[in-house]
Write a structure and sequence with these properties.
The protein is of the alpha+beta class. The protein contains 20 helices and 8 strands.
């Protein structure tokens, strides 16, 4: 411990950031991208098109809305999914435009997607899509629960770092309005304090909700003591479910033919409960073709903070309402609300961009903290060693690690998107190859940072990132060019916004590379940055 409590808090804040900084930065970046998981999947699957939900738009005889989509889905399932215990119908939303049905026959799982004309899509792009970033965010691509434990420890460390940072920066208003220009070290320190204040509520919410999601897993002692199967036993008790269906006879009408699902009557009843248009996200039909078949309708999550939306249950062939799911306990409801806050499925487009911006600032908060530590240590080391350019081992490790973490994830992300467009469509395990390209690019970034001087590595990898994102913008327009033309013709804002974002990222990295080039030239000419005024005579003496 240090001599005073405040110095101890500064020490704890610093070294919590140093130990977990690289991991937290990667988690924050991938989590920020996860706010647009459906949109990323939409861009990475060019065969998808906008499926309008506006009842005013006509498709032949039917309104191209959820009634039409439900009718076509049930018709397809009744014809092709006769040997199964359940059907699942996922209706498109304004975010992902993915309309598909799903069923299983034994261990074989079937998934069929449709275009806006209810025609099955034969060739779907094999890709992880935005799910990759969301999964990597909390699993770190590790099997089992190892990644969740590591991410949980990182969240706890950041929560403690936030509280120690609050105590360290007690002069909130003065820090908020202070942004000194000139020396990069002072500017970076002020910017770190500024975004720390701006993003404080957001970071607190993210860390606390992340811990709450897997609270039982992190503290399983009570569950293991009171339930036979531990955590799984708790989930079975606190998560409400419907009674298991017993075996039943086949549902036949008076002519001896199979009955049709009474979805028109069910939709009519739904309008009394859910007033908003296009309120259905998912439909599950249990025991199709049986007399006791159940029709479970799940509401979209856009109107609920909780990650579990409202569900209504009906008899499939009579449309009679059935007793639904029991209410969850208060702790389970609280956990689901925290889960929903973390995922932000309820967010409108404006709120989602705000959360994305806060996530980007949170990533910058972590990155600037890592850079500040390296700059201050380099300054102290150069001062103590008469401006010799042989850094300590720990300082070199931190410098190289910062480059690999910050620039590595930026380059790897761009390569992941590029692989989606450049890999052959008929490649075996194509989705896995996209993920492999992500990690190969990241490993190359690590190797480059190790073998090159730090200043050169920063500049060169920033140039690579700039070229990659500019290439992404070009590829988005040209591969396939028909998709880009269709996006322009239909004014597909979701698809077109990716082109704009990629171009802006490329321009941003180009500007950063230009600034780093200036510093690299000054360093190669004998200028030693980040030194105190007392060291200026020594610098001049060395120049003589």
């Amino acid at each position: 411990m240090k001599t005073t409590f405040r110095k101890s808090m500064i020490w704890l804040h610093t070294y919590l950031g140093i130990i977990t900084g690289w991991l937290l930065f990667v988690i924050f970046v991938t989590g920020t991208l996860s706010y647009f998981t459906p949109e990323i999947s939409y861009w990475m699957m060019p065969e998808r098109q906008v499926i309008a939900g506006d009842s005013q738009q006509q498709n032949q005889v039917y309104a191209q809305g959820q009634r039409y989509q439900l009718e076509k889905s049930i018709d397809y399932l009744e014809a092709h999914a006769t040997n199964t215990n359940s059907w699942r119908i996922y209706l498109p939303t304004p975010r992902d435009h993915h309309w598909y049905v799903q069923w299983s026959e034994g261990k074989t799982r079937h998934l069929v997607s449709f275009n806006k004309d209810a025609i099955p899509i034969e060739t779907a792009t094999d890709t992880k899509g935005g799910i990759f970033f969301r999964t990597f965010h909390y699993t770190l691509q590790l099997r089992g629960y190892g990644g969740r434990y590591i991410a949980g420890v990182a969240a706890m460390a950041m929560l403690l770092a936030l509280f120690t940072g609050i105590y360290t920066h007690r002069r909130f208003f003065k820090d908020f309005f202070t942004l000194r220009k000139g020396k990069l070290t002072k500017w970076t320190t002020d910017f770190h304090a500024l975004i720390g204040i701006v993003t404080l509520p957001f970071c607190l919410m993210i860390c606390i909700s992340a811990i709450m999601i897997y609270a039982i897993m992190y503290m399983p002692f009570s569950a293991n003591m009171h339930f036979e199967k531990g955590e799984r036993g708790v989930n079975k008790v606190i998560i409400p479910s419907l009674p298991t269906l017993s075996s039943s006879v086949e549902a036949l009408n008076t002519d001896g033919e199979s009955k049709s699902v009474a979805y028109p009557a069910i939709l009519t009843n739904l309008k009394k409960h859910w007033k908003e248009p296009n309120a259905i996200k998912r439909i599950t039909v249990e025991a199709p073709f049986k007399e006791n078949s159940r029709f479970i309708v799940e509401r979209t999550k856009s109107l609920s903070v909780s990650n579990r939306s409202e569900r209504l249950v009906y008899e499939s062939y009579t449309a009679a309402p059935l007793e639904g799911y029991a209410d969850e306990s208060a702790p389970a409801t609280f956990r689901r609300i925290m889960y929903g806050l973390h995922q932000a499925n309820f967010a409108t487009i404006g709120l989602r961009w705000l959360l994305f911006g806060l996530g980007a600032l949170g990533s910058a908060l972590i990155a600037t903290g890592l850079i500040i530590w390296v700059n201050k240590r380099r300054t102290a080391y150069l001062t103590a060693n008469s401006l010799r350019d042989d850094s300590s081992l720990s300082l070199r490790i931190m410098e190289k690690g910062n480059i690999a973490a910050i620039m590595g994830i930026a380059i790897a992300t761009s390569v992941f998107f590029l692989a989606n467009r450049l890999l052959p469509a008929d490649m075996i395990n194509r989705a896995s190859m996209e993920v492999n390209a992500f990690f190969i690019a990241w490993i190359c970034s690590v190797g480059h940072a190790i073998i090159r001087p730090s200043h050169n590595a920063w500049y060169e990898q920033t140039c690579v990132a700039a070229l990659s994102y500019i290439a992404l913008a070009v590829v988005s327009v040209s591969i396939p060019v028909e998709r880009a033309l269709d996006a322009v013709a239909t004014w597909d804002i979701t698809y077109l916004s990716f082109i704009v974002v990629f171009a802006l990222c490329g321009v941003g990295f180009m500007a950063l590379a230009r600034g780093l080039k200036v510093r690299l030239v000054r360093t190669s000419n004998g200028y030693v940055p980040h030194t105190k005024s007392a060291d200026v005579p020594n610098i001049k003496a060395r120049k003589r």
